[in-house]
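Continuing the series of single-chain predictions for the mutant panel. This is the parent chain; the variants come on the following pages.
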Amino acid sequence: VRLQTGFYGSSTQLGVARRIVRTEGWAALWKGLLPALVRQCSYTGLSLVLYEPMRDAIAGGVAPADLPFWKRVLAGGAAGGTSIFVMNPTDVLKARMQNSAVRLSFGSTTREIVAQRGVRGLWAGSTPNVARCFVGNAAELGCYDHFKCSLVAVAGLPADASLTHFGASTGAGFVSAVFSTPVDVLKTRLQAGAGVRDETLLGLALRIPRDEGFGAFYKGFWPLFQRKVLWTVVFFVTYEKLNLGLA
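Parent structure:
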């Protein structure tokens, strides 16, 4: 968040981490933990619940193994976009709490945003957030499904092998990070400014390249990439193992 909002100006991931620890203490690295946990568990769970029904509806009776790649991507994106719109308030709270130099509580941050912008303030940045999660989820769920089928069909790996799950989830995490980082930057800046300043999505999208260059759309790429790959590997490998255990 601090990298994407330019809180410390131009800096590196390690440099920002050091400044946070030096000025705010080690605990500051865990700011926004509560809304982050609520968001991750609720959003991911809802996305996963919605993905297969949406995929099957889009498939129109075609077997999952024969489903075109773009339909898997569409199903994954639709599931992610729908889920994050419902959970957008948790993202707004997380961004505000993480971008603040002082410690903010979950309750006080919620009350401040509602007092200044009304309940709709909790849906600040929902448009880029839905776009970001459509892209991210399309990559994570759609690409994972596609990469897994490809590893089985082309590389001859067993469908239930850990290497299959690891390879497919790593590839999905990388694709997700590449395509979702620009909209993640827009989403984070709009949400971090909820109740503080008003700026439209279009105005922000035009201002960033004018003031900072197009490279600014990839601020925070490496921590996002690390989080995406780590999350997709842990999540999908665990999910597959649980599925095998319940089968």
